[in-house]
Amino acid sequence: MRDTRESRLLLVLLITTAFALITVDIRGGEDSPVDGARQAAATVFGPIENGVSGAVDPIGNAVVAVRDSGDRHDRLAALERENTALKAELGSDDRNRSRTKQLDKMLKVAGQGQYGIKGAQVIAIGAAQGFSWTITIDVGANDGIERDMTVLNSDGLVGRVTTVGPHTATVLLANDPDFTVGTRMEAGDELGFASGQGDRPLRVELLNGKAEIKKGDRLVTFGSQADKPFVPGVPVGTVSRVDPSGGDLTRTLYVTPFVSFTKLDIVGVVVQAPKKDPRDTVLPEKPKPTPTPTVTVTVTPSAPADGQYQQEQ
């Protein structure tokens, strides 16, 4: 529309008319004289509005979804963190229960052997330290730990202390090839020396080449002078194989250790040796043999067939 004097007068007239209709509608309330016109307009333009609304609502919802997605993501992340923390707490409880069980069993072993021990936790393994079988424990000189002390756990001999720092110590494990310990056979006086072979059974050389040894026999530590590096009576392992005696001065045994060296967690350092040799009292009870079930088969003679019976008659 061109900007002329007439168009300006028409615009002023339309605006004045609109204000007048609004005033009349407000004052009229429910009986407004323009209500009929409003309903007619709603009838005409209602479907158009709905269509436009239907087209615009998804866009609006998408905008809201984008706006709220950050909040949802934050809530989801918070829930994931809570679940992770809960799982860690549950796992920690399981691990603490396992450690408590290990500690209780180790204290029982120490009580049986009358060993004074200092409990410790394994905090590192020493595969990188010259490829030797060692562990690091969280006690050291400040806790009364000294070099050449015996280390055990709830199952038996773990090793001996080799290096001591103020707060930590290094333990050479009994399966290390450089490890050697004097042994004594259970319920006997057959002595020998056990050496580590890594992940293979310990190799034991008995001093008596004619000793009568069989699979399943058990060994304990013989002990050292002044109880260093080994106190007596600590369980070592069970004989798994005996080399045939070839008339040698010694006899070779292969012993499966009681301790699982790849599953060490709670250990004890013997800081006070027993007043007397506990001998075999620290060894666990031997498992009772499981009886082998016997099956008795009874054969019942079958009745002869009718034809066979008649033939015999």
Automatic annotation (TrEMBL):
| InterPro entries, sorted | Cell/Rod_1 (IPR042177), Cell/Rod_MreC_2 (IPR042175), MreC (IPR007221), MreC_beta-barrel_core (IPR055342)
Biased-composition ranges, Basic and acidic residues, are: 275-288
Pfam families for the chain:
MreC (PF04085)
Residues covered by the Rod shape-determining protein MreC beta-barrel core domain: 130-270
User: Per the record, which residues fall in region Disordered?
Assistant: 275-313
Task: Give the top-rank taxon of the lineage listed in the UniProt record for this protein.
Answer: Bacteria
Keyword Metal-binding attributed: no
The record's similarity note reads:
Belongs to the MreC family.
NCBIfam families, per the entry: PRK13922.11-5
Function per UniProt: Involved in formation and maintenance of cell shape.
Protein name, UniProt field? Cell shape-determining protein MreC
